[in-house]
Amino acid sequence: MTRFIAVASGKGGTGKTTTAINLGTALSDFGREVIVIDANVSKPNISLHLGTPKLRFTLHDALRGNKHITEVAYLHPSGLKVIPGNISVEEADKANIHRLKEVLIDLVGTSEIILLDLSSGVGSEVEETLRASDDLIVVTNPEIPAVADALKIIRIAERVGCNVLGIVVNRVTGDKMEMMLKNIVDILQKPILGVIPEDISVKKSLAVKHPVVYTHPRAPSSVAFKKLAAKLLGESYKETLEKEESQSMLNYVLKGLGLK
Question: What is the pLDDT of residues 109-118, one digit of tens each?
Answer without folding.
Answer: 999 999 999 9
